[in-house]
Amino acid sequence: MADYDYDLFTIGAGSGGVRASRMAASHGAKVAVAEEYRVGGTCVIRGCVPKKLFVYASHVLEDIEDAEGFGWTVEGAKFDWKTLIANKDKEIDRLNGIYIRNLEGSDVEIIEDRAIIKDKHTIHLVNQDRDVTAKVILIATGATPNIHEVPGHELAITSNEAFHLDELPKRVVVAGGGYISVEFAGIFNGLGSDTTLVYRGEEILRGFDDDLRTHLHAEMDKKGVDIRTGVVFERVDKTDDGLAVTLSDGSVIKTDVVMFAIGRNPNSKGLGLENAGVEFEPNGTIKVDAYSKTNVDNIYAVGDVTNRANLTPVAIREGAAFAETVFNKNPVAVDHSCIPTAVFSTPEIGTVGISEEMARQQFGRVDIYKSTFRAMKHTLSGRDEKTLMKIIVDPASDRVLGVHMIGPASGEIIQAVGIAVQMGATKAQFDATVAVHPTAAEELVTMKTPEPQPEAVAAQ
Ligand code: NDP
């Protein structure tokens, strides 16, 4: 071990890199982590955390509107973007400090610099202009937003900049139909921006259960988001009073801000990976095995740079499994199936397991239990918003294959349901669970009758 400066050198102090570094250190390894921006990574600094704070902010207006039905009169409510940004920044600074203290408390050395691989055991620190050596190198550099290279694309922002806009745009156009796009469309719309979402496909949230996709679309419509599908950007131009987006159908949208949310690219370019012979895909995804090892024996990669399931908790799992495998001599592979996830759209989505479409492909005949209802709160608020819950069951084994829901607190609920689904719970076991009343979630244990099978519907 004395042959190297470090047992482990981690590049990137985001969710995956921090967890891997701390756990490796807890197993006795001498660890350094290099970070060129801020400790905490995308999730903490410019992703999940500030996004969720924005989502809370964007729901307040609806809460105020709903208050009337409960007898409240709220007068003079005003929103101040600068206050939100300042408070959000304060919270991010606090979390950044905690991450730094946790690393230091675990005896992990933090190196604030860009690190480039020179060979399989040597790392060059760019600003400090020095080399260090390590027995094992971990790449945990995350991903960065894609840009649609149409004329005028440089006038657009991505989610990175959306967290630091000087003012709330009066009008905004968001490109993309994935997680970030629907979440930010909900945020801007909820805060009062005139919001348009432009998606190239037929329906937003490709890959999710179709009922979730159409339900979210309908609810976003009701809330006033202008969703344009089947179109792409042709160009973005500067105008006297903002920007103009020209779409492939010839229509022009006048706006103040254009935001691209069209996927993310792994941050693997310019890292010197080729100097060590690390293999990656043309799009930059680093190829790894089940234990996060690259084709080079002592170089590993975790998180979004490996493009497996690009979610913070997954990166954390991969980081922990790597440290356990390499530094505790206990090989652990992360199971990437059955990952519960939430989309913090408005309303919110929670989902675990496979979609109806996938279930029919894999199992042929499946039973679908579905409930669409008005949440109790809205009986008094009068808001026209529906909640959807859906359970997909393999009739042969009675096993629950997927649970999909959209409505308030879906993210919170799906975390608990995810335990049952990944344990292989059956529909009978769901039904045997006593309902919690009055809640929306009780629908999950009270749906008794499956939807008619498609062939029965077709025959009618
Ligand atoms: P997604 O992969 O979720 O969605 C990308 C969207 O952009 C898709 O609708 C895609 O269309 C569209 N798109 C891709 N390329 C183009 C193009 N050239 N022109 C027009 N549209 C295009 O990516 P996001 O950027 O929304 O988010 C990145 C990842 O971050 C997510 O996949 C998720 O893993 C993670 N994330 C998770 C969150 C959470 O857990 N709540 C929140 C935010 C992000 P198509 O469907 O047709 O391919």
Automatic annotation (TrEMBL):
The keyword Oxidoreductase applies. InterPro entries: FAD/NAD-bd_sf, FAD/NAD-binding_dom, FAD/NAD-linked_Rdtase_dimer_sf, GSHR, GSHR/TRXR-like, Pyr_nuc-diS_OxRdtase, Pyr_nucl-diS_OxRdtase_dimer, Pyr_OxRdtase_I_AS. One of its GO terms (molecular function) is glutathione-disulfide reductase (NADPH) activity. NAD(+) binds at residues 176-183, 263. FAD binds at residues 52, 304. The active site is at residue 437. Keywords: Disulfide bond, FAD, Flavoprotein, NAD, NADP, Nucleotide-binding, Oxidoreductase, Redox-active center. Residues 7-319 form the FAD/NAD(P)-binding domain. Its EC number is 1.8.1.7. Disulfide bonds join 43-48. Its cofactor is FAD. GO terms for cellular component: cytosol. Pfam families: Pyr_redox_2, Pyr_redox_dim. The keyword tRNA processing does not apply. GO terms for biological process: cell redox homeostasis; cellular response to oxidative stress; glutathione metabolic process. It comes from the Bacteria. Homodimer. Belongs to the class-I pyridine nucleotide-disulfide oxidoreductase family. This is Glutathione reductase. It comes from Candidatus Phaeomarinibacter ectocarpi. The lineage of its organism: Bacteria, Pseudomonadati, Pseudomonadota, Alphaproteobacteria, Hyphomicrobiales.
